[in-house]
Amino acid sequence: MSEEISPTGKRSGSGSSPELRASHADRDRVVDVLRIAAGDGLLTADELDERLEAALSARTVSELTALTADLPAVSASTGTAVAEVKDVLRIEGIHSGAVKRAGRWVVPRRLELATAWCEVTLDFTQAVITQDTLRIDMNTTGKKLTLITKPGIVVDAGALSLVHSKVKIRQAPEPEAPITLRVELVGTTTHGRVVVRPARRTFGQWLLRKPTSLPAGD
Q1: pLDDT at residue 112 greater than cutoff 80
Q2: Half-sphere exposure of 16 toward its Cβ, with a 13 Å CA cutoff?
Q3: Which of 133, 148, 175, 190 has the most C-beta neighbours closer than 10 Å?
């Protein structure tokens, strides 16, 4: 069994002073815990914003500990919440606002999408991935599902049934990168779109981009 530590990285029962000054690393660990909790639905957007602001301005360990006291413990071996990984995560929405999972959200073992005219975005670029396969069961109508990938993540839509729908897959670059996650899309989507793409370059990355080499003889 992995040892459990507080969100600040201190071992439980270590007897450290509650007024011990917090370091930048302590704040960063708490910010990760808060973002993971929000991605898993444990905190609302307003609660996340409020706690992030408090974490970034916290001066002592006790102030940081109070921000995560009602959240799952943290594992010393992975640095992530012990009880965060779900067997099934279900996302539902009918004519609702856009749904987005981004940042350090924890990828479940299986994801169910039951949406109608509700746009969904799953950003895997900073996600916490604990297994090599994710099955996404789709029963969706209208709007768009966007999967944002990174090298090592591949998406297979071969088993997805399309009814007046389109799929556009543009895998992340570096095809020789080892596969860390295989996403399998199954089920049915009607009058909708599925878009798989890598993360867009930041402005700095765009400025530093390498020119595309031309084939010999062109």
Answers
A1: yes
A2: 16
A3: 148
Angle at CA 127, nearest 5°, toward 125 and 130?
125
Amino acid at 105: W
Residue 145: in which H helix or E strand, if any?
A: strand 144-149
Between these two residues, 68 and 183, which has the higher pLDDT value?
183
What percentage of the chain has pLDDT greater than the value 90?
38
Q: 82: which 2 tokens?
A: 């012990």
Q: Provide the 3-class DSSP secondary structure of residue 217.
A: coil
Regarding pTM above 0.90, the answer is no
Contacts of 24 (CB under 8 A, 6+ apart): none
Q: What is the C-alpha to C-alpha distance for residues 181 and 150, in angstroms, rounded to an integer? A: 10
Residue 208: what pLDDT? 57
User: Strand 4-5 and strand 74-75: pairing?
Assistant: antiparallel
* Secondary structure (3-state) at 74: strand
CA angle 156, 81, 108 (to 5 degrees): 20
- Reading the block at residue 151, the tokens are 């090298």
Q: Which amino acid is at 143?
A: K
Is the CA virtual torsion 206, 207, 212, 218 positive or negative?
Answer: positive
Question: Which has the closest alpha carbon to 90: 47, 27, 140?
Answer: 140
DSSP H/E element including 63:
helix 61-67
